[in-house]
Amino acid sequence: MAFAQTQLEKRYGCALQVLQQALNSSEGIDWTVWYTTLLLALFELLETSSHQAWIFHSQGAKHILLSLGPNNIKSDYEKILLAAQCQILTVEATFFNRDCFLSSPAWQKALHTTITHDSKIPDRSEPVVTMWATAACAPEFFKRATKAIRDHHQPDQIAELSDDLSALLDRWCKWREKWEGSLVGDDFPTLHDTTLATAGPTIYSQFLAFWALTNRFLLAIQPHRASVAETNAVDAARRILEFDRLRQADSVIDRCRTFSVSIARSIEQTTTEWTIQQNVSHEWRTIQPAVFLRWNTLLGRTIHDEAQDLPTNKINMAQATAP
């Protein structure tokens, strides 16, 4: 076992060296460099002894992806990796209070080109890709809401952000209406948690997580909407936890569910305090910053200013990917 671990570490070290050589090369960065960076990120994510090294790898992949541009997503391999990277970048942006560049029109168009109707590739099905494409637009609004609460924005700014979050909720509603129907088909005329948990992929729980978050952030900037937004968030959290209970335990699937389950638990544990806010806040006042901070801390989400991006020059990028 120790010998196998040593061999694995040696190969991992060699992979890092080859990646750094490629990044230091005078030749342009190609897709193989991006592939390598993503594989190293996956290795760190699955290696239980790792902590946050995968974040640095994903940041390296982000810079490489940006340098290649949305118009270069052409081959099937490139589409597969873009679809996978969208999930990583969206979740990362959500938890680190950052914008997600995949929300831009050009990248949204590129994401939609990854859709396939081949039933053997569920991760690139229309419901999955469109869910993550919509989710990629959410971190920007979450970041703006965080700033509005922290900096006590004016009512007109709050109203504009509220409209944007409401529009995002409308997009989620349309997605859910279309996806639930295609998920269960004609065999299940009645929708319930057991049906959805066993018939569909984990994408539905991930959708519910973003639906819950969007409602929570709307409530955060306008507590007077608590009667609707908090109810929606709590209901989504309950369903996520029920899905988690119904699904069979599996180490890989559990990792995929961690994101949605952590959100659900944070909402469940803070709903009493958040519900009270509707009675103590005026229409144009946000939720109390201390209450918002406690929830974000429980969630594991930073609310500080966006950290400076990792260096974009090739040498420093390679150094940033080292564990």
From TrEMBL:
Q: InterPro entries this protein is in?
A: Osmoadaptation_assoc
What superkingdom heads the lineage? Answer: Eukaryota
Name the chain's protein.
Answer: Transcription factor domain-containing protein
Q: Which organism is it from?
A: Cladophialophora yegresii CBS 114405
